[in-house]
Amino acid sequence: MRKFFYAASALALGACLWTGPVLADEDDVTAWRLFVTDHEQPVVNVIDALDGDKLDTFTIKGPASLYRTESGQTVFAVQGSASVVSVISTGIAFQDHGDHGDIDVDDPELLDTTLDGSKPAHFVERQGNVAQWFDGEDKARLFTEKAALEGKPQVREVSVVAPHHGVAVPFDKHAVVTIPNPEDASKRPIGARLVDLDGKQIGEDVACPGLHGSAGSGSLYALACDTGLLLISQDGDVPEIRHLPYSDKLPEGSSSTLIGGKGLQYFVGNYGPDRIVLVDPSEQDAFRLVQLPTRRVHFAADPIRSKFVYVITEDGQLHQVDVLRGEIAHSLKLTEPYSMDGHWSDPRPRITVAADKVFVTDPLNSKIHIVDANSFEKAGTITVEGKPFNIVAVGGTGKAHEGEGHEHAGGDHAHEEGHKHD
C-alpha cells in the first residue's frame, strides 16, 4: 500500500467532512445542498441533499458549468454561450475555531455580482483567490471570493498574450497563466508562465506542450501536458513550477482532464477513453493505470472517504476506485447506457458527493440517483424537471448558536426516508 500525503486542513475538514448522522448535542447542525444545472434551460436548482426537497430555482442567462469554492460559501455558474459568470451564495458558511467549527445556514441566493466577457471557461479558486478565464479575451481576471460575496469584486486583469483555451491559477500575489501556441492560438497552449498581479513575468517560462486539464489537491495544483504534469506549489513568497514526466512504463498517451484528491494528495486523469491514471506526486513511481470496462463518462473524488474516486462509464455502471490499491473496489449498475459517441457536450451523467451519499445525474431520465457511499448500494432517486446535468455539493456539520438560522438542516429522519422522490 502506498503512502499518500494527508493534505486537508482543519478548516477544510470542518467545511466538508461528515460521515454519519447528526450528533446528539442539540447545537450540532448538519446541512448539505446540491446545486444542479439543466442541460438546456438557464436554471440552477438548489436541492436539500438530506431529504431531496427543492429549496429554490435560480434563473440565469444560459446553461452553466458549476464550480464551488473551497469554503463552500459560493458557487460560480459559468455560462459560456451567454458570455457571463453568475455568483450564487450557497447559504452555508463555516467559521473555524480550532477545536470546533461554527455553521451558519441561511437561504441560498443568486447574487447581483456577475462577470461579463467573451467565452468564459476555466474557473480556478485557491485559498479564497479566484481566477476566471475567458477564451475569447487576451487577459484573465483575478479577484477574491470575499469581494464577490460582498458584491464588490476588485478585479485585477493580467495579460495572457492572445485569446486561447487556457487557464489561470491564482495565488496571493501571483498567478500562473498558460502560454498560447505562437503559430496558432486556437491550438492547445505550449507552456505556463508565472506573473505578478501587474502582469509582469517572473522567472522563465515552463514548457508544457498540449496543455489541457488542471486540478488542485492540498497544497499542489497540477496542469496536464503531453509530457506529464506541471506541479505548482508555494512554500515561500513566490510559487514554483516543476515538471513531473510520465513514466516510461506507461503506454503512449496523456491526460487532458484532471481531478484532485481531498484529504489525500493525489491526482486522477483520463488516459485514453477507457483507462484512468492515478498520480501520487510523492512517489518515485508516481503513475498507475486502472483499466475501466468501457469508456469513461465522468469522475469525481470523494472528499470524505478520501481514498475513493467514483467513475461512471458509458455502460451505466458507477465504479468505486480505491486509489491506494490502484483498482476498482466495487461496481454498481445505475443508469441506462450513455454512449460517448456523438458531441462532447451531449447530456451525460455527472457525479458529486454529499455526506454519506454519492449523487449521479441522469439527464435523459430527469433524475438524480443516490448511492450509499458506505454500502455502495442504491439509496433512492430525486426527480428533477428537465435534464439535470452539472452538479456540485456543499455542506457539513458545525455548531450553531442560539438564534442562528438552520432551516433545512436535516437530520436522521432524512436517511430513513430513503430519499425516494419518484
TrEMBL record:
Gene3D superfamilies: YVTN repeat-like/Quinoprotein amine dehydrogenase (2.130.10.10)
Ranges of Basic and acidic residues composition bias in the record: 399-422
Region annotation (Disordered) ranges: 397-422
Record flagged with keyword Signal: yes
Signal peptide: 1-24
PROSITE patterns named among the record's database cross-references: PROKAR_LIPOPROTEIN
Keywords per UniProt: Signal
Protein's recorded name: Zinc transport system substrate-binding protein
Keyword Transmembrane helix included in the entry's annotation: no
InterPro entries: AztD-like, Haem_d1_sf, Quino_amine_DH_bsu, WD40/YVTN_repeat-like_dom_sf
